[in-house]
Design brief:
Elements lengths: L1 H8 L3 E7 L8 E8 L4 E5 L6 E3 L2 H8 L5 E5 L10
Antiparallel strand pairs: 1-2, 1-5, 2-3, 3-4
Length: 83
C-alpha cells in the first residue's frame, strides 16, 4: 500500500503536442509526452526516439519552430506546477 501511495504522488501527467492547422482534418498529434515536476519526455509519432526536455516549454519551443503547435493534456497535472 505504501508503494502505491508513493507512485500515485509522483505519477507523471500525460500530454500531447498537436499541430494546429486551418483545417481540423489536417491537424495531427506530433508527439506524446510525460510531464514530471522538473522535466518532460516526448515520444514523436513519426517513430523517432523519445526526447528528454528540461520542461514542457522546451518541448513546445522545439516542436513549434516549424509548425503551429498546441499542448493538450490527457491527464491534467492536478494543481502541480509543471514547467
Amino acid at each position: 500500500m505504501m508503494m502505491t501511495h508513493l507512485a500515485l504522488e509522483q505519477v507523471p501527467a500525460r500530454f500531447a503536442i498537436c499541430e494546429e492547422t486551418e483545417s481540423s482534418e489536417d491537424s495531427q498529434v506530433l508527439g506524446w509526452g510525460l510531464a514530471f515536476d522538473d522535466e518532460a519526455v516526448v515520444v514523436p509519432t513519426n517513430g523517432g526516439l523519445p526526447n528528454p526536455f528540461s520542461g514542457i516549454k522546451g518541448a513546445l519551443r522545439l516542436y513549434g519552430k516549424l509548425r503551429d503547435v498546441r499542448l493538450v493534456w490527457v491527464d491534467p497535472p492536478d494543481g502541480r506546477e509543471l514547467t
